[in-house]
Specification:
There is one protein chain. With 313 residues, the chain is α/β, with parallel strands linked by helices. Helices cover 35% and strands 16% of the residues. The strands form 2 sheets. The chain has a 7-stranded parallel beta sheet with strand order 8-7-6-9-10-11-12, with helices on both faces. A 5-stranded parallel beta sheet has the order 2-1-3-4-5. Helix 7 links the parallel strand 6 and strand 7. Helix 8 packs parallel to helix 9. The chain starts with a strand and ends in a 10-residue tail after the last helix. Bound molecules: 2-keto-D-gluconic acid. The site of 2-keto-D-gluconic acid has 10 residues, from loops.
């Protein structure tokens, strides 16, 4: 039997690649000299796209593949996939929810601790030999502080639970109050920022959240406030964030995501009040194994005519 053909937009770990190549004919876009002509040369036979959260699949790409049946995304965020086009064209879409929630929430708390307690600076301080000359300057406490969570989806809930373990007071912003949760709902993001010592952004990406964490939010967060972003770079108005960090109208930021990845704005690199991560919140071996398995399970279910495991569309 001939193997179904898959267009892969970016690499997965070796264990996933080996597994996929056993069941499918895999066309690797990222290895092509000229991706346009590479895609065109396989357009008539590709039945699935395997992509990653940040790479997505545009309507343009899908339109080039007349036999396309399914887009399987290695990541929970589908904001870079044109779901409207997929739905209208009968193309199924799957993602990898739940399996990455804990890791992303861990990094939300990890970034809050890292920026407030200045853990990377402390590490550099010990390395530099300065410790024998003087003690490092004092830092800011995290436990017991006011933590505002913007976006009370799976990652927001997991982050709030973790912050509760640090005896933090928690409030959250979202489109609606959730009656199943014990924390205080705040329908106004600026008001949440004004109340918060730490504002942790866990919103889904996409047009409805584009740039909502803006200059007014930073002004409300104030010179003692910290921002943590583990959502998408698109949710934050980045020039305003950079201004606030440079002018120290907020105290600092812990960031896993950016507007332009991996070529982030170079202004970030000159700052001493940030901790930066390379969009790696879900990047543990354990979670990435589970994400890859879910991508493969969805593809296998589709080609076996079975219900999809985690359908989006
Ligand atoms: C991944 C993500 O880093 O789940 C998402 O939406 O952005 C991340 O978990 C990414 O999809 C892997 O490349």
């Amino acid at each position: 039997m001939t193997k179904p053909e898959i267009l892969m937009m970016g690499a997965y770990p070796q264990w996933d690649m080996e597994d996929l190549e056993e069941s499918y004919q895999v066309h690797k876009v990222w290895q092509a000299q000229d991706s346009e002509s590479f895609i065109a040369s396989h357009a008539e036979s590709v039945r699935a796209i395997a992509t990653r959260g940040e790479l997505g699949a545009s309507a343009d790409l899908m339109k080039k593949l007349p036999k396309l049946e399914i887009v399987s995304c290695y990541g929970v965020g589908t904001d870079a996939i044109d779901l409207t086009h997929a739905k209208a064209s009968g193309i199924r879409v799957t993602n990898t929810p739940d399996v990455l929630t804990g890791d992303v929430a861990d990094i939300g708390i990890g970034l809050a601790l890292s920026i407030a307690r200045r853990i990377p600076d402390a590490h550099a301080y010990v390395h530099s030999g300065n410790w024998s000359r003087a003690n490092m300057g004092l830092v800011t406490r995290f436990f017991g502080k006011k933590v505002g969570i913007a976006g009370m989806g799976r990652v927001g809930v997991a982050t709030a639970r973790r912050a509760s373990g640090f005896d933090c007071d928690i409030r959250y912003f979202d489109v609606a109050k959730r009656d199943d949760l014990p924390w205080t709902f705040e329908p106004d993001l600026v008001a949440l920022a004004r109340w918060s010592d730490f504002l942790i952004v866990t919103l889904a990406g996409g047009p409805s959240t584009f740039g909502v964490v803006n200059a007014a939010v930073f002004e409300a967060l104030g010179p003692e406030g910290y921002l943590v972003n583990i959502s998408r770079g698109t949710t934050v108005d980045e020039p305003s964030l950079l201004d606030a960090l440079e002018k120290r109208t907020i105290k600092g930021a812990g960031l896993d995501v950016f507007r332009n990845e991996p070529g982030i704005d170079r202004r970030f690199l000159a700052l001493d009040n940030v901790v930066l991560q390379p969009h790696h919140a879900s990047g543990t071996v354990e979670t990435r194994k589970a994400m890859g398995q879910l991508v493969r399970d969805n593809l296998a279910a589709h080609f076996a005519g079975q219900p999809l495991v985690t359908p989006v569309v």
